[in-house]
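Supplementary Methods S3. Input chains for the assembly prediction are listed below.
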Amino acid sequence: MDSQPWPSPGDREEGQRRPARGQPPGPGGDLGALLARVARGDQPAFEAVYDSVAGQVFGVARSVLRDPAQAEEVAQEVLLEVWRTASRFDAGRGSGTAWVMMLAHRRAVDRVRSRQASSEREIRASAPDIDYDVVAETVEGRLDAERVRKCLGALTELQRESITLAYYGGYTYREVAGLLEVAVGTVKTRMRDGLIRLRDCLGVDW
Amino acid sequence: MKIRRTDPHTLLGAYALDALTGADRARFGRHLGMCESCRQEARGLQEATGRLAAAAIAQPPDRLRERVFAAAAQTRQLPPLTRETSAWPGRRWGMAVACGLFAVALAFGGIAINTQHRLSQEQAHAGAIAAVLNAPDATMMVARAVDGGTATVVMSHLDSALVFTAAKLPALPSSERYQLWLMGSGRARPEGMLPALHQGVTAPMVVKGLAAGDEVGLTVEPAGGAEHPTSRPILLLSLPS
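Predicted structure tokens for the full assembly:
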């Protein structure tokens, strides 16, 4: 079905990052130096950034929005935003990847919520079909994705569900509480301590 | 709804996951402004959420690539923030300038405000300004209007708000005034008429509810204001995302 939020296993090969030229960051490497070049109008650097992040940007947008056409629009906006605002990226405040993915996730979520404001998004009684196993399936064999899966797997169920519904589903913490039928306060704490565990597990150095 | 006081630190996770909306987000932004250790933790958690994207990777259509590069070729890039317009980490210097400027603007504007507003409203207004100026992500920008004059904007994503003041704009006939707009995504939201200039400076205005892709625009309109811009903006400033 079209609405599947995750790439099917067949997409996987093509979906991998394929830095084409320039000095693309290696797996897990950072985009900071490339972004500095993009800020100076360096086209090959922008192409290398595109190749490095486009799959993730589009993937996050599709995961949150579900609709591939809208995801494509959002991905285009985000990638253009990277070009336009590269000079505002500040390496002292975080990694380049985190910056780009923050732009992407925030914009996808904003799109969902602005749409929601005009026509109330129905919140399904049961958890939506963001299937954790599907997440795992699509990242098989990919180093950083594999690590994410492993680290998500190390969380408690409630931590994991809270984080995946918010991140991949674009739900607010109050909506997540509704979906999981737990207290709002519980979701807040699970998100925080889940992310702390995730951060430590992923070896995030900030 | 009953409002309970809870430890705002617990919102750090939801914040890093973009799972906060409106009031929660603004309230948390104010807290972050006062809490260095929270900012540090937020940074770490945002790095972690950024990594989650790796598990959602999907192959975008080839046309996306063409469109992005075609659009980039026609899109001017934002200049870097210079010392005067610096956000972080040269921010203190820039903010000192901004605060000074707004203090001046407030002092001048205060003359007008005093006569028509209750004190509490003034305080709320000053509080809203202070919240933006003190936000940890406050960014200052200066833009030039086409016929002379400058606008100074300090914005905060955390607060989804900005403070606007203009200086040395050309004088208008009494039938016209400057009107402030939030533009972007093909729409324009009126944000009010610019207060009269006092010695060339306008009292600061606060614009709330910023969305991604918004731009701040200034147009010349009939003195009563317009629902939609009726003239080309004399100033258009893209807000950093």
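Residues 123-206 of chain A form a domain with the Arc Repressor Mutant, subunit A fold (CATH 1.10.10.10). Residues 43-65 of chain A form the longest helix (23 residues).
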